[in-house]
């Protein structure tokens, strides 16, 4: 019987995920037997999309471990949707050949231009088209969550879509350094140089501030950039600061980077925030009333991720409680965001993250460099920076780290978020547990 199979599977799921998560997202599902497996009915499309993205692989693994047929489908429950308007999912653009690490949503068509980023968008499009910049290199400068990774990856998607034979290399500055060190250790530095100097038509190098203080890596990058420039190849850089402002860069590299067209990206104004949140709602397939979106856009400033977090919280509350998508619900979501931001402390974040990862808080403040510790530590520091008003130095005191180490850890997470959907889901879960995702 599908009911008994689902009941036992659900009990296992409560051991894999938080019980409150299971209550919100898994218990509303309704099982039905289908040929070769099990179908789970979802209250609406938003609920189905969330379960598909965050829980479906784990549920399939649990089902397969039981020796049951591993086919597991998600389907809408019969009956009218409680959401206003037709729940149509925005169709993603068709892409050409891609690269590992590229987010398929990061294309020009999904980038919302406004006063703070229109020049950056135009410059990126010109670079992708190989025209109009009077220069073969572009340097995008912005803080976190403002779109520099989106534009960088959009360049790659457009170049590969226009000419699949183009040799595109997309790496972070840290990955560049790590690959060089590995090549040196294995005595294969010739292959490394061949890849970056002669096997590359377009180099996309993210977060160049990671190279600060790494003199040997900077020297190799200078030679690489000279070779690419001599061959007329294109390069896109990103960073938190303009080349001349990054401390720890050698004059030779700072000079090469400074020859790029450098474009800053500013936080979106209210009109742009409104267009962004309208697109985010369309991508979720939900028709949210205009006044509600306008209210969110008016009250939420800063990076795009706060807009997405508030919207997800709004839609989750609507989907799971049946409350109407109106200004009252939006006010409650924003009120929770504001109150939790005020009362969340770095110490609370440190201790909760440690608990959720099964670690003692002392491990996060200790000297361990094991991946099982550094990953949660960086996530905790990122959450402290994002959801408290603590400075890098203040966060460092909580984790027994200096200012530069905290900044590095935060930037690590910021860089990975643009490329690792699983990490983004993990971060959303942590924010929900902290009460700062308004879900």
Give a description of the structure.
With 439 residues, this protein is an alpha/beta fold. It has 4 domains: 2-76, GMP Synthetase, Chain A, domain 3, CATH 3.30.300; 108-264, P-loop containing nucleotide triphosphate hydrolases (Rossmann fold); 270-342, Orthogonal Bundle (Helicase, Ruva Protein, domain 3); 344-434, Orthogonal Bundle (Chromosomal Replication Initiator Protein Dnaa, Chain: A), CATH 1.10.1750. Helices cover 56% and strands 10% of the residues. It is built from 20 helices and 8 strands. The strands form 2 sheets. A 5-stranded parallel beta sheet has the order 5-6-7-4-8, with helices on both faces. It is globular and about 65 Å long. Residues 80-96 have low confidence and may be disordered.
Describe the secondary structure blueprint for this structure:
Layout: H1 2-16, H2 19-26, E1 30-34, E2 37-42, H3 45-54, H4 56-65, E3 71-76, H5 118-129, E4 137-141, H6 148-162, E5 168-172, H7 173-185, H8 189-198, E6 202-206, H9 215-230, E7 234-239, H10 251-258, E8 261-264, H11 270-283, H12 290-299, H13 304-321, H14 327-343, H15 346-356, H16 361-365, H17 371-387, H18 392-399, H19 403-417, H20 421-434
Parallel strand pairs: 2-3, 4-7, 4-8, 5-6, 6-7
Antiparallel strand pairs: 1-2
Q: Uncertain spans, ≥5 residues at pLDDT below 50? A: 80-96
CATH class of the largest domain: Alpha Beta
CATH architecture of the largest domain: 3-Layer(aba) Sandwich
Q: Summarize the biggest pleated sheet.
A: 5 strands, parallel
Strand order of the largest sheet: 5-6-7-4-8
Helix content percent band: 55-70%
Instruction: Please state the structural category.
Output: alpha/beta
Per DSSP E runs of 2 or more residues, the count of β-strands stands at: 8
- The CATH topology annotation of the largest domain reads as Rossmann fold
Euclidean distance between termini CA atoms: 33 Å
What is the beta-strand fraction?
Answer: 5-15%
